[in-house]
Amino acid sequence: MLEELFDMSGGYVMDFTNGTFTTFIRTCIGFDPYSRYEGSKAVILREIWENEPLDDVARLNLDLLERWRLNKLKAGDKPNDFDIYAIGKMTELFSADGSAKLSQEDLAFLDQDLAEVDLSTLPKELTSQEVIQSRLDEIDRALDAGAPLAVVFLVGSTLEGLLVELALAHSKSFASSGKAPKVKGAIKPVNRWTLSELISVSRALGVLSEDVAKHADQVRNFRNYIHPRQQLKEGFEPRAEAARIAQQVLRAALSDLRAFAGRES
Q: What is the pLDDT of residue 98?
C-alpha cells in the first residue's frame, strides 16, 4: 500500500532527487541513507523499513505521508478513493499512540489485498455460511465502533468454529497428522482440540498457509484474555492494530479454506 502511494515501482520515491531524499531522511531520523544502504531510493526506503527501529520507521512514514498530501495539494490533484483509504489507514497505523509497534511482518500481512471470499465456495463440510457472514458483518461494525477486544473475540471464536467443523469432517487425516495432539500417548479426540492445536494441524496439512497460521496464533494469544482476571494480570489493552490483524487473519483463513475446497474437488 505504501509502495503504491509513494510510486516506488521504478526505483523512485515520489518526487525526491538523491539530494532531497538524503536531506529528508537525515532531518527525519538523523542519518545519511546512502552512507548506510545501497541502491535506488525505493530500495533504500525498503531497507529502512526492514532494519531501523520501529519508532523511527513510524516517524519517517508519517512525514512521507504528509509530503504526499502536500504534493497532491500543490498539484491540485484530488485524491481518489484508494488514496483516501490508504492515507487514513497508514496514518492511523503509524500514529504516535503506540500503534507503530507492529513488526514489518505484521505490516506486510496487513498490506495483503485479499478479495472478498464467496462463502458458497468454502468446503462443503462448512455448513454455517449464514452465521459466518453475520460474524463478518459484526466484525466490521465492531471495528467502526472502536471495539478491538470484541473483534479479537469474534475472530477467534469464528476461526475455531470453522477449523473444528473441518477437522471433524476430515477426522482421519487430521488425527493422523504428526502434529495431532496426544494425551497419555493417545490421539486426543478432535472435538476437544484447542484453537492452538487446530491451527498447528491445519498448517501441517496445508489447509492454512504459513503466514496465516503464524498470525492466527497471535489471535489465539489475544483470545486468551477473554478472562478479565488474565487480562488484568498481564495488563493487556487491545489496540486498533490488534483488531485489524485479527480481521485480516479471518479473511486470509477464508481464502485458504476456499483454496483447500478447490484442491478437494
A: 43
Give CA–CA dist 23/241, Å, rounded: 31
Q: Are 179 and 212 in contact (CB under 8 A)?
A: no
Cell of 57: 520507521
User: What are the residue ranges spanned by the domains of the chain?
Assistant: 2-101, 117-264
Buried b (16+ CB within 10 A) or exposed e, 93-113: bbeeeebbebeeebbebbbee
- What local confidence, expressed as pLDDT, does residue 149 receive? 85
Q: What is the DSSP letter of 7?
A: T
| 4-22 residue pLDDT tens | 889 898 899 999 999 999 9
DSSP readout, 94-111? TSTTTGGG--HHHHHHHT
pLDDT number for residue 238:
65
Question: Does domain 117-264 sit in CATH 3.40.50?
Answer: no
At residue 235 the predicted structure's pLDDT band, cuts being 50, 70 and 90, is: low
High-pLDDT (> 70) share of the chain, %: 90
The answer to whether 125 and 165 are in contact (CB under 8 A) is yes
CA dihedral (58, 62, 64, 67) in degrees, to 10, reads -170
pLDDT of 236 reads: 62
Give alpha helix (H) positions in the chain. 2-5, 18-29, 33-36, 41-51, 54-75, 81-93, 104-110, 129-144, 148-169, 171-175, 195-204, 210-223, 228-234, 240-264
> What is the pLDDT averaged over residues 85-96?
76
DSSP summary character for residue 227 = S
Dist CA 240 CA 21 (whole Å): 31
Cell numbers 500514529 correspond to 95
Regarding beta strands 186-187 and 182-183, do their DSSP bridges make them parallel or antiparallel, or are they unpaired?
A: antiparallel
